[in-house]
From TrEMBL, chain A:
Belongs to the binding-protein-dependent transport system permease family. The keyword Transferase does not apply. This is ABC transporter permease subunit. Keywords: Cell membrane, Membrane, Transmembrane, Transmembrane helix, Transport. It is a multi-pass membrane protein. It is found in: Cell membrane. Its main location: membrane.
From TrEMBL, chain B:
It holds the Pfam family SBP_bac_5. SUPFAM superfamilies: Periplasmic binding protein-like II. It comes from Brevibacterium rongguiense. InterPro entries: ABC_transptr_sub-bd_KPN01854, Peptide/Ni-bd, SBP_5, SBP_5_dom. NCBIfam families: SBP_KPN_01854 (TIGR04028). Residues 145-491 form the Solute-binding protein family domain. Residues 1-59 are annotated as: Disordered. This is TIGR04028 family ABC transporter substrate-binding protein.
From TrEMBL, chain C:
Pfam families: BPD_transp_1 (PF00528). Gene3D superfamilies: MetI-like. It comes from Brevibacterium rongguiense. This is ABC transporter permease subunit. PANTHER family: D,D-DIPEPTIDE TRANSPORT SYSTEM PERMEASE PROTEIN DDPC-RELATED (PTHR43386:SF1), OLIGOPEPTIDE TRANSPORT SYSTEM PERMEASE PROTEIN APPC (PTHR43386).
Length: 355, 622, 267
């Protein structure tokens, strides 16, 4: 764990983090531009070489020149960069629609799905964690202790297909053709919830375990503090950081989750936009997806990093206790965490921190 | 598509179809006695708008004729016969006269990309354009004959087919109120014939040699061509020449793209009411529509109130929606599912696509395929019947020619593609390809290894090629299937190094279809045209293809098409597999579904058997 | 430790993994059916004694395809994790032991990798590298680099500060020898535990690519592809999707169990 001192809640720290966030964003943009530039086949080809249209190679070449797709990579990169800086995302090559229009239609749908999915994941995680630790029967605890691993092991696309077949087509509970807004969200949100809730639940379970094992719990309990209040307070404090970190990282999975979920359920959204853009080699759209989702990820994690000192009271009272709040501590905490395994490693990390 | 569906064919000639030759000489439509009308009498029990006739062998056709009483006239050819055999239709709501009202819920596998008519060949685009835009002429999908539509008669055509004069029917308006007059038609054709590079709008593939349009009076317009263009009459009947309003014609490539569907204004029976980007689109009936092709028995407004087109990229969702009753119709039913869907009381309709059969083009410019004996060996090695029985149903008839038997210019080639692996072995031996103990034959150190594309739009291309792979392996030819998504496949298909065997098909109900597939300036399926050297590897083939579109008379065009086919068969350049249909699935409440000549849906005649009840129940939400 | 009761589960997990490895090594012992050629068998047969998981849309035995597919799926998962492990660990080692600008550069690069949506990155890489099992595995592996780099770095930082490492430096040992003798061995066990955990994750990611059409090209019986092909018929022939899905789930669950157990041992 890092030995650097936390720059005591300073502007310098905040500015530093903001600067890093911007840097990451700039690199991501450039990297994405480079990757997309070397993609074999471009959108002009994808759209106009379609045998359906039967354009001759010479005609396609003319269109390419006309649309500026024949210019060098760097010239296109600069144009695009200037556009992004001024809020102009350009036009989809596949459909000709303005990328900003495509996003305006897609973002609210994906946000709704993500918000509901995330909220459901948090609720499910809390429920699972409580049942796994405070369940009355031993078998009940064992079962719910295993649920996060199970949830992580379900292929999301498979789950979506099975859910829609069972609930929509077999039982007829949810219409896919003519759903109310809530109906339209239920199954996709459920599909998204399952993989998202697992890491959170695992973090919570570990936190509860740890808190219950700590001596101060027994001491305070002996002093007569109410059991429930104490636990909630202690657990909330103990679990807040890892859970928050986890939530921030989970955010990165939302786009991937949305691609699968929206494809299966045929929902409008960023994910569906992404998969079509990939299929059509629609670089302007892809670039915008990368930049917007990267920006969202960076912002959310920046916010979490900046919130660290505020939330973790212990950090302010005894900074040496757990290493630096932002940069370094954040890294090590997150280093361990990641897509599927995140929860399992976070506590390990904590153990070393506490050691 | 088996044309002989007349008995079940309500949309069938209200007038005996004027022969195209006559039309060419400017004879006005012969509005003779409606021989075909007789079929209307049978309409009660039949309710058949089987414009859609499926693929059926002559044998199953006669079955159909008998069955069509049961068959509700979706005209699914043998599929229908099959389903009727499997489970007699006992739906009491059968037949009756068409009911007005209701919204049809229709699932399409893909989202539409553009509504610029010359580019609407892609099925999701065409499914919309075919219903919102009218055309000058109407092509009967079962006979492929042309009939008046917005033009009140067939065009006057000069002797060398370089000038076409159309007389328009009066009183037609676009849905924005603007008139569909001669000036408007000229603007449409100017754009489709010439394109507009500045707006990235290419010209229509079907219109060649276009020079200009000329407004003779408000209802008469003449088009001139620099060379004989006999295909123009047919070209103005397809949705690629859908007539749009003047305001719409000023849009650019982006303005025809997703997000602007409700601003594409035309004169058709439906208008685009609203669109949810990438997921759904609503069509609303135009209640003042009164200019259906005079040939159709149905006139006036469409029966449906609207069509809800939903994009369901997941096949299982489309089928699930249909099986559970949430959808009324879906496009693209996989062959293995046909039997299971009919078992559940759903209907399968296979629409013919009337073009070049689903086939493998052997790219002879490649060194491995330049020897005719190798190409002949490939043909002899492949067991087409096994592929069909294993992967497909009766809706996919074995190809008997380069073109589908219902296509313009069809010529039958018996025994040209006989399965004979022993002969394949002998041919390869003779050509010097030896089996030196290995599985793959070699010659001068080179292996006989070829690569075929995975034709994603074609049904079960991957599985077809897997079976071809097995067959070829048996005679010592290694075949690999090019992996990759659509964009990769399209890009690779242009390269001789990447793709030597090209699996594809083209649907178009005109003699030109063969040119669309093989001409160097079109799909260039054989890579006969070398884009680098700008030379033809077989100039003779290209010359023959040119004749197909420049012979002014029908007989001449047929002869030219046959000459092309003879050359393709003599030189063993193409292995046709089967005639590819477009397969739809329907709930029983859907009646009168029809397709245009290449299998895109036309909802004008479609109606719902329970439209009344639905109206009482408030219909679908929203 | 309140987790003692999971021991039998860990054993069961080990058994599952052993079985799947056996499938991969000697598929012929577990099924007599040909995974790629259905011969004359009817398509879409329901599960029966002859075909445990039924037959697929061209008459191939689904169970046989799962058994034969084990080698492809496991190999792909191993390659993916291998890429993440090797590259990520190397980066993490350099960043953790070198500090300074090298660390800054590496960790910013890792931040970038972490912030680009993993699936999008994988898809892009597949398209660039070309379609195929190995390329899909590499594409998935690249997205795993960030986690390995971060974990390794934090471990190295932790170990570097330990008294015995300082003592080793104090006794005059060079950077290289300290790295090899002390830092690497003491940092690695949590990283290896992560690697085991990641195998399950990689199987899922590769099958997701297969589902979207960017994974292993047919007819290779890769697990994701089997589900992807079978899902079309889920409304009419559920077994094509449900059984392979369950198998993937059980295997991923088992690797996860094992990984967790390993981590507990290593912690």
């Amino acid at each position: 764990m890092s030995r650097t001192r936390p720059p005591a809640l300073s502007w310098r720290y905040a500015l530093n983090r903001v600067g890093q966030a911007l840097l990451v964003l700039a690199i991501a943009f450039t990297l994405a531009s480079v990757l997309l530039a070397i993609l074999p086949g471009d959108a002009i080809m994808a759209r106009y070489a379609n045998p359906e249209l039967a354009l001759s190679p010479d005609q396609i070449e003319a269109i390419r020149v006309q649309s500026g797709a024949d210019r060098g990579w760097f010239a296109q990169y600069l144009t695009t960069l200037a556009g992004f800086l001024t809020g102009d995302f350009g036009y989809s090559v596949a459909s000709g629609a303005a990328v900003s229009d495509l996003f305006a239609a897609a973002v609210p749908a994906t946000l709704a799905l993500a918000a509901v999915g995330l909220a459901a994941a948090v609720l499910a995680a809390v429920a699972i964690a409580l049942l796994a630790t405070f369940g009355r029967q031993r078998w009940l605890r064992a079962v719910f202790d295993a649920v996060p691993s199970l949830f992580i092991s379900v292929p999301a696309f498979w789950l979506g297909i099975v859910l829609i077949q069972v609930f929509s087509f077999q039982l007829g509970w949810v219409s896919v053709v003519d759903p109310s807004p809530a109906e339209a969200l239920v199954l996709p949100a459920l599909t998204l919830m399952v993989p998202l809730s697992a890491p959170l639940a695992q973090v919570l379970i570990r936190s509860i375990d740890e808190v219950r094992a700590q001596p101060f719990v027994r001491v305070t309990r002996a002093k007569g503090a109410s059991d429930g209040w104490l636990l909630i307070h202690a657990i909330a404090r103990n679990a807040a950081l890892p859970a928050l970190t986890m939530a921030g990282l989970t955010f990165g999975e939302l786009v991937g989750g949305a691609v699968v979920t929206e494809t299966v359920f045929g929902r409008t959204g960023i994910g569906q936009l992404t998969s079509q853009a990939v299929a059509n080699r629609d670089n302007p759209v892809l670039l915008a997806v990368v930049v917007v989702s990267t920006a969202a990820f960076v912002l959310v994690n920046l916010a979490i990093d900046l919130l660290y000192p505020v939330i973790d009271v212990r950090l302010r009272t005894s900074p040496g206790d757990r290493g630096a709040p932002g940069n370094q501590g954040g890294h090590s905490l997150r280093a361990a965490s990641g897509q599927a395994d995140a929860p399992a490693t976070a506590p390990a990390d904590r153990q070393e921190a506490g050691a | 598509m088996s044309r002989p569906h007349t008995p079940a064919h309500t949309a069938d000639p209200g007038e005996p179809a004027p022969r195209r030759a006559a039309a060419r000489h400017g004879a006005p439509a012969d509005r003779g006695t409606p021989a075909g009308r007789g079929t209307l009498a049978s309409r009660g029990p039949l309710a058949g708008h089987s414009t859609l006739a499926g693929h059926s062998t002559p044998a199953s056709h006669s079955a159909l004729a008998r069955r069509s009483v049961l068959g509700l006239g979706l005209g699914a050819g043998s599929a229908l016969a099959l389903s009727a055999c499997a489970r007699p239709d006992t739906d009491p709501a059968e037949g009756g006269s068409p009911l007005t009202g209701g919204v049809l819920v229709y699932f399409d596998p893909q989202a539409w990309q553009t509504l610029y008519p010359p580019q609407v060949g892609f099925y999701p685009n065409g499914g919309i354009m075919n219903n919102i835009a009218d055309r000058l002429l109407w092509q009967d999908p079962s006979t492929l004959e042309l009939h008046p539509w917005i033009a009140e008669s067939l065009p006057q055509i000069n002797d060398d087919a370089t000038a076409f004069t159309f007389r328009l029917r009066p009183g037609v308006t676009h849905s924005d109120g603007s008139p569909l007059d001669a000036a408007n038609v000229k603007r449409n054709m100017d754009l489709y014939g010439l394109g507009d590079d500045k707006r990235q709008l290419p010209p229509s593939e079907q219109i060649s040699n276009y020079v200009s349009g000329e407004v003779l009076d408000s209802r008469t317009v003449r088009f001139r061509f620099s060379a004989p263009s006999p295909g123009f009459a047919q070209a103005v009947s397809v949705m690629n020449a859908g007539l749009l309003s003047n305001a719409t014609l000023t849009r650019d490539s982006q303005g025809f793209g997703p997000g602007s569907a409700d601003r594409i204004i035309a004169s058709g029976p439906f208008v685009v009411e609203s669109e949810e980007l990438g997921t759904r689109l609503r069509l609303r009936a135009r209640t003042d529509y009164d200019w259906a092709p005079p040939h159709l028995p149905h006139q006036g407004r469409p029966y449906l109130d609207g069509v809800e087109i939903i994009v369901g990229t997941e096949y299982s969702v489309r089928v699930g929606a249909l099986v559970s009753g949430q959808a009324d119709a879906i496009r693209q039913v996989d062959a293995p599912d046909e039997a299971r869907l009919t078992e559940r009381g759903l209907r399968i309709v296979a629409a013919a696509t009337n073009g070049v059969t689903n086939s493998i083009a052997m790219r002879f410019p490649h060194p491995l395929l330049s020897d005719q004996r190798v190409r002949e060996a490939l043909i002899a090695a492949v067991d087409r019947k096994r592929i069909l029985t294993k992967l497909f149903t009766d809706n996919y008839p074995l190809a008997t020619g380069i073109l589908a038997h219902s296509a313009q210019g069809y010529k039958r080639f018996d025994g040209a593609w006989r399965h004979d692996p022993a002969q394949a072995g002998r041919l390869l031996d003779a050509a010097g390809w030896a089996r030196d103990g290995g599985a793959t034959r070699v010659k001068d150190g080179a292996a006989l290894a070829l690569r075929v594309n995975d034709a994603l739009p074609q049904p079960r291309s991957k599985e077809v090629m897997t079976l071809v792979q097995e067959d070829l392996a048996k005679v010592g030819i290694a075949l690999s299937i090019n992996p990759g998504d659509m964009a990769t496949q399209d890009a690779d298909a242009l390269s001789l190094e990447r793709i030597q065997l090209y699996h594809s098909m083209v649907g178009r109900a005109d003699f030109d279809v063969i040119k669309s597939q093989f001409a160097g300036t079109r799909r260039n399926a054989l890579l006969n045209y070398d884009a680098d050297t700008k030379k033809y590897r077989d100039p003779q083939l290209e010359k023959l293809l040119d004749r197909v579109s420049s012979e002014p008379q029908e007989a001449g065009r047929r002869g030219a098409s046959w000459a092309v086919q003879d050359r393709l068969v003599d030189r063993a350049l193409v292995l046709p597999l089967f005639e590819e249909p477009q397969v739809y699935g329907f709930r029983r409440r859907v009646r009168g579904f029809a397709c245009e000549a290449v299998g895109r849906p036309a909802f004008y005649d479609t109606w719902l058997a329970d439209a009344g009840e639905r109206a009482q129940n408030g219909g679908p939400r929203r | 430790m309140r987790r003692r009761h999971i021991r039998p589960l860990t054993l069961a997990a080990a058994a599952v993994i052993a079985l799947v490895i056996a499938w991969a090594l000697a598929p012929g012992l577990f099924t007599r059916q040909d995974p790629n050629d259905g011969g004359t068998t009817a398509a879409l047969l329901a599960p029966s004694g002859a075909h445990w998981f039924g037959t697929d849309e061209i008459g191939r035995d689904v169970f046989a395809r799962m058994v034969y597919g084990a080698s492809h799926s496991l190999l792909a998962a191993l390659i993916a994790v291998g890429v993440g492990l090797v590259v990520g660990t190397a980066l993490g080692l350099i960043a953790g032991s070198r500090r300074g600008w090298a660390e800054d550069v590496i960790m910013r690069a890792v931040d970038v990798l972490l912030s680009i949506p993993a699936l999008l990155l994988s898809l892009t890489i597949v398209i660039i590298l070309g379609f195929g099992t190995v390329n899909a595995a590499i594409a998935v592996g690249v997205t795993a680099i960030a986690q390995f780099a971060r974990l390794t770095r934090s471990q190295v930082v932790r170990v570097s500060g330990a008294p015995y490492v300082q003592a080793a430096y104090g006794s005059g040992a060079g950077y290289g020898s300290v790295l090899v003798r002390h830092i690497v061995p003491n940092s690695l066990s949590p990283v290896l535990a992560l690697a085991v955990l990641q195998i399950g994750w990689a199987i899922l990611q590769i099958s997701t690519l297969g589902f979207l059409g960017y994974g292993t090209p047919p007819p290779t019986p890769e697990w994701g592809l089997i589900i992807a092909e079978g899902r079309n018929y889920v409304a009419t022939s559920w077994w094509l999707t449900v059984f392979p899905g369950l198998i993937i789930m059980i295997v991923v669950l088992a690797t996860h169990r094992l990984g967790t157990a390993l981590r507990q041992v290593s912690a």
